Amino acid sequence: SSSPAPGISGQALNFDGVNDYVTLTNIASNSQTISAWINPHSYAVGGDPDYVDAILFKGIDSSNGFFGTAHTSGGITAIARSSASGKVFATISNPAPLNQWTHVVGVVDGPNNQLIVYRNGVPSTPTTISGFNSNSNAWAVGYQPGAGAYSYYFNGLIDEVRIYNRALSQA
Predict the structure, then answer these.
(1) pLDDT tier for residue 5 given thresholds of 50, 70 and 90
(2) At 152, is the pLDDT very low, low, confident or very high (cuts 50, 70, 90)?
(3) Arithmetic mean of pLDDT, 75-94
(4) Does residue 77 contact residue 70 with C-beta atoms inside 8 Å?
(5) Which residues contact 149 (CB under 8 A, 6 or more apart)?
(6) Residue 53 bridge partners (DSSP)
(7) Any bridge partners for residue 81, and if so which?
(8) Could you tell me if 36 and 108 are in contact, meaning their C-beta atoms sit under 8 angstroms apart?
């Protein structure tokens, strides 16, 4: 479990990068928006270079309806999987600075077949994802469930987590 720490607004959760995470109730929709403020203390070393520090994830990597956001030393990424498109990524190559607050938003828009990630309000180039349908798995904050041999735990602070059952726009 994580411990409280001063956050962007009130208290944040402090994740140790080893085994801390929080589980949230399932919210299912073919369009979803997830957002959080992150304050990473380090970048994970090794493992899968596409996503090593999990911010917020739903489902496991190999399941359709898998969706989440992560940060690495290479940038901020939203990841989703559908039966039609397989696993797709939307990435901003500018990483979140260590020990500073960064706002991260991931949007999967099923009807418009798009996956987008935002870093402090700046969007990535949309990535095409066809046939996205959410699964019935719970959400995990600070961890990617079912990551196999790699450890995808977040090391740092996460605050103001929001999950919406619709695709929000930049406006």
Answers:
(1) confident
(2) confident
(3) 88
(4) yes
(5) none
(6) 71
(7) 87
(8) no
